[in-house]
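Re: that backbone. Tokens:
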């Protein structure tokens, strides 16, 4: 008797997690010049304020990256 393998293909779904117990979406900004990063916040206005303060203190820093941490969930379709 020889061993054999059984393959089963399944369909999975991936989407942002909007369940009541999901983690919060967090926003932050990072200066592309010096790599300094704002604190993360559920309110995007706080990282925006950080950018305005940072560029006020560093007038040559004009470029920033937005960092979004968004929870996702995957499940197998039946």
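Recovered sequence:
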């Amino acid at each position: 008797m020889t061993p054999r393998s059984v393959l089963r293909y399944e369909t999975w779904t991936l989407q942002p997690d909007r369940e009541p117990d999901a983690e919060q979406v967090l926003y932050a900004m990072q200066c592309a010049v010096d790599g300094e990063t704002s604190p993360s916040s559920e309110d995007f206005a706080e990282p925006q304020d950080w950018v305005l303060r940072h560029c006020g203190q560093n007038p040559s820093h004009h470029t920033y990256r937005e960092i979004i941490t968004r929870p996702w969930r995957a499940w197998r379709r039946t």
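The CA atoms of residues 29 and 51 lie 7 Å apart. The chain has a mean pLDDT of 95.
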